[in-house]
Each structure stands twice: as structure tokens, then as C-alpha cells.
Amino acid sequence: MASPTPAVRAEQLLWDLVYAYDDAYERAALEVGLSAAQACVLEHLVDGPATMGRLADEMLCDASNITQLVARLEARTWVERGADPTDRRVKRVALTPAGRRARREVHRRFRLPADRIGRLDPAQQEQLAGLLALMTDPDPERV
Amino acid sequence: MASPTPAVRAEQLLWDLVYAYDDAYERAALEVGLSAAQACVLEHLVDGPATMGRLADEMLCDASNITQLVARLEARTWVERGADPTDRRVKRVALTPAGRRARREVHRRFRLPADRIGRLDPAQQEQLAGLLALMTDPDPERV
DNA sequence: TCACGATGCTTGAGTTGCTCAAGCATCGTG
DNA sequence: CACGATGCTTGAGCAACTCAAGCATCGTGA
């Protein structure tokens, strides 16, 4: 077989990596008693409380989905729903200490990225970060 | 704030990329009328038929899940379930022409990897493929 | 000021993806 | 040829999701 171009090889390798990444994340969450989606919510709250709407935007899903996700998280005391002082329609969702611990624990068990990146030497890590920055940076869509 | 190490930056960028990747794949599939899981099944059949059990292994899920997934795909004539000539317990699942077209169409719409990799020049693509190869290559687990 | 559209969230109904436990048919082997 | 192992399906049940409707609150223009 002809050897594929670097671009095609990179595409295949990226697919494999994403596959492994998703699986590892789900496993890590599961070990802590969370679903991947729930862990993802905790992740989005780590830098401070957020409104339901903001979570829905960030997680690219319907607001009603967040309602249920947060309800389940709240039932397990990983998250608290509070009122917004300036707008009574808005709910502010915040991590509880237990939620913070759970999220930390998911991170601790989610070894895959650190492991994989750790296989590279510092110069290669620098290279990778540079390449990913070029790739991740979204094209300017606005005028 | 102190600037994070390359490893930490790479980890963050990788997270973002995986997030975008998953979302883009699901969207691409949805546009063709498939769920991500269904598209994934078609993907696994592209190099030829597979048994239900093999699909379950590759997709890291229970066999009964594959039963239902394949049933839905079959109902829409994207795959066919045939008998194995040498073992009557085994079902061989194969893409139909329509299934092959659908899978192709998902790929056509799933622009993200090619787009992102396409932002790199050939030398960078080569670099990326090399780094990903180092990362993806699983540690030898067998003796 | 107050009616009314917009905004933020929830509820209810319905689908899919998934798991586990059980069950059925077939296979291979002692 | 009996019996455990293998391959798949069925049924029950949950989580994650979407859409449509509904409720409360907000902000604004007449």
C-alpha cells in the first residue's frame, strides 16, 4: 500500500486519540460515580458559579437538559442552585465542597492526557502545544 | 498569572480540540440523519463486514447495545445482517450501498479534522503526525 | 404605569444509547 | 451425546438528550 500523506496519518491518529480520550474521561467519571455529562457540568463550574443558560450554551445543549442534569447533581449534593440577586428568573449554580472534591477526583483519575503528553520530551511538548494552538484557534467568523 | 507549562497548555488545547471534534462529528452525522453512535457503526464496517461481537468489542459497549443499534440501522436499510456460513450463531453485519453513501456523506460533512490540520503547513503536518504517533502508540501491555 | 414581547428556567412527552440479567440457539469437547 | 462456553437477542430500567408548552420575571415603549 502507498504510504498516506502526513495529513491523512495525522487525521487517523487524531481520531484514535479522541476515541481513547472520550473513553478514558467517561471511565474516570464513572469511577467517581458521575456520568461524563455530569462531570462536564462540574468542570464548567470550577471557575465559579454559572447560570443554567450559560451552562447550556457552553455545553451546546438545550436548557431543559441542564435543568435535569443539575437536578441530579443537586440531589447528590455536588451542586447548589441559588437565586441571582439582581434577576429573579436566573438560577446560579455553584459547586459544593463535595462537588469540588468529586471534580478533583475525576481529574486525578483521568490520566490519559497527562500520560500521553508525558511521553513527549519538553521540546516536543512545546511543539505540540504550538501546533494545537494553531489548530484550535477558531477562524475569525465575525467581521 | 504565571504562564502555564507547555504540557499544561497542550492539555488544555487538547481538551478544547476533543470537545470541538466530538461536537462536529455529531453534527455531521445528524445532518445525514444518523446519530453519532450509528455513524460510528458504519465507520467500523467500512473495511468489510463484522460480527456483532466484534462491533461490541471495538465500540467498547455491551453486545445488546449493538443489537439495537444495528436493528435501527437495518430498519433504515443502511446495513444488512447476514448469516455466517461456518457458525450459525454468528451474524455478519455489512454496509448496504445506501449505508456506504451515508457514511461517505458524514465524512464529507465532517470537515473539522481536515480543516484544523489544513491550517498547518506540510512540515507542521509531518511534525503533528509524528507527535501523535508517539502519543497514540499504546504502551506495550503484553509480555 | 402598565401591557406585552423577550428572557430564563422548568415540565412533560418521547427517542436514543447504554447496561445488566435472562434466555435461546448453536458450537465444541470430554 | 451431554454440557459448559459462545454469540446474539429480549426485556427492564436509567441517563442524556430534544422539542413544545408553560410559568415567572424583566424591560421597554406608548
From TrEMBL, chains A, B:
Gene3D superfamilies: Winged helix-like DNA-binding domain superfamily/Winged helix DNA-binding domain (1.10.10.10)
Entry superkingdom: Bacteria
Gene Ontology biological process terms in this record: response to stress
One Pfam family it belongs to: MarR_2
Regions annotated as coiled coil: none
Domain HTH marR-type: 7-137
Entry-linked PROSITE patterns: HTH_MARR_2
GO MF annotation terms: DNA-binding transcription factor activity
PANTHER family per UniProt: MARR FAMILY REGULATORY PROTEIN, TRANSCRIPTIONAL REGULATOR, MARR FAMILY
Protein name listed in UniProt: MarR family transcriptional regulator
